[in-house]
Amino acid sequence: MLTIALSKGKLMESALDLFRRAGYAITGLSGESRRLIFVSPENDMTFLIVRPSDVPTYVEYGGADAGIVGKDVLMEQDSDVYEPLDLGFGACRISVAALQGSGSNDRLSSKVRIATKYPRISERYFNMRGIPVEIVKLYGSIELAPVVGLADRIVDLVETGSTLKAHDLAEVEVIAQSSARFIVNRASLRLKQEPLMALIRKLRSVVQNQKALSGHGHSSAVRTRKRKAARS
Asked: Average pLDDT for residues 108-137, to the nearest whole number?
């Protein structure tokens, strides 16, 4: 039996939908469920429902054979896991943001104070640019930090940017793109190679089909716009 760690929250429903489209009939489990462990004997799987930041830990140390988590979490924790699939959903970006009109000036003579829940990503990024920083670790409401003078900038996950705009913040730089990833414990890949590789193949097929459909839809929209332009 495979044990799969799933992230609570935004990625949960998309992850379950991915498994269902891959042919795994998972009934009785949803993003609203309060259960932390769900046994699916018909699929020979057990699902662990854990905090996103805990998924890589469960997988790395063998509490789970595989898991689904955002790339942002993997970058922050630098976990020793195998990462065979970019699942495509949960797309967002890790960005630097500042109050409108204040984001272009680096204070090279003193440390720039950064509020974030990604201290490692932030420190690596600014160190590579030669900018000294002071990291203020926050766990939520990151956007408030520049507004109340707690920090010069923030590093946070951005999807649409609407929350930033609501607090008079603007993206200054994009550090990295993030999306949901399927990760695997390295020992499990040897010991449970057959079922894990079968699962990876099925998930990959769903992801590739989804990309093909998205590409077809984009191409159709482009062709439609060109035809309308030609007629006009």
From this structure: 91
